[in-house]
Amino acid sequence: MKQRKSQDFPAAGLRWLVPFHAGESHLRVVASRGGTQVVDEIRFRYQTEKWDKTGEAGARRGGARGWDGDHRGRLLDAKGLQCLDARNAVRFALAGDGELIQNLGTSTGSRQVELYNGRATIRARMKKGEAVVSVSAEKVGTAFLNVKG
User: Fold this and answer.
1) 136 touches 130 (CB < 8 A)
2) pTM above 0.70, yes or no
3) What is the pLDDT along the chain (149 residues), one digit of tens a residue?
4) Are 88 and 137 in contact (CB under 8 A)?
5) End-to-end CA distance of the chain
6) Per CATH, is 54-148 categorized as 2.60.40.10?
7) DSSP SS3 for 117
């Protein structure tokens, strides 16, 4: 158990050295003060494998928040490894029962964005029914993701 010390840098002394291993990881933090407990957690993939020249665009569905959803595009090499240094411009589109949240000038509210760490995210407002989200990049091709509202 660690105690917060506001003068300690960084993070007021609340830091841990956590060894990551290749593959899926799950971090969970529990904090309490005065009988109130706060819990936060994250799941992620820690990639140590080397990737080759970018081969294809991949798309997957992120976590949904009510009627909204995050839609991610990832650039993968021929072996399916994420190209973490890819900075290609990618374009998102949606056909069907929903609409992209766009023209906001933000990294998740623009139809066209630049990849960061080989991925990009767009938000969509889904309706009941089905839609197809596409992500495309020049010289890479297009990937499609079926989404239900």
Assistant:
1) no
2) no
3) 778 888 888 788 888 888 888 888 898 989 888 999 999 999 888 888 888 776 555 655 443 222 334 667 888 887 778 888 888 888 999 999 999 888 888 888 888 988 888 888 888 888 888 998 888 888 787 888 888 87
4) yes
5) 42
6) yes
7) coil
Query: What CA–CA distances, in Å, run from 43 to 27, 29, 33, 63, 102?
Result: 6, 12, 25, 11, 27
Beta-bridge partners for 73: 59, 120
- For tokens 């798309």, the residue is 59
Phi, psi of 131 (to 5 degrees): -150, 165
Structural domain spans, the chain: 16-46, 54-148
Summarize pLDDT for 106-143 with one digit per residue, the tens.
888 888 988 888 888 888 888 888 998 888 888 787 88
DSSP string, 22-63: SEEEEEEEEEEETTEEEEEEEEEEE--S---SEEEEEEEEEE
Phi, psi angle pair for 15, to nearest 5°:
-140, 150
Paired strand residues for 144: 134
Give yes or no for a contact between 89 and 74, defined as CB atoms under 8 angstroms apart. Answer: no
Amino acid at 131: A
Q: What angle do CA 60, 62, 64 make, to 5 degrees?
A: 135
